[in-house]
């Protein structure tokens, strides 16, 4: 009986865990901007820096 329940709900639980990792995992792994990057980019007029929302937000929080 327990094996039958696991065979029914196991794939749903695994799919839910994978979905949550895909949804929240990358932002916590790749979402950080270091203070050093903010300092180097503070006076740069590079289009990537000017349009970089994450760097602008971090810079605004630090002031």
From TrEMBL:
It comes from the Bacteria. This is D-alanine esterification of lipoteichoic acid and wall teichoic acid. It comes from Listeria cornellensis FSL F6-0969. The lineage of its organism: Bacteria, Bacillati, Bacillota, Bacilli, Bacillales.
């Amino acid at each position: 009986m327990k094996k039958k329940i696991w065979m029914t709900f196991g794939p749903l639980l695994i799919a839910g865990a994978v979905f949550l990792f895909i949804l929240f995992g990358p932002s916590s792994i790749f979402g950080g901007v270091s203070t050093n990057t903010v300092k180097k980019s503070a006076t740069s007029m590079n289009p990537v820096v000017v349009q970089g929302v994450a760097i602008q937000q971090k810079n605004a929080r630090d002031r």
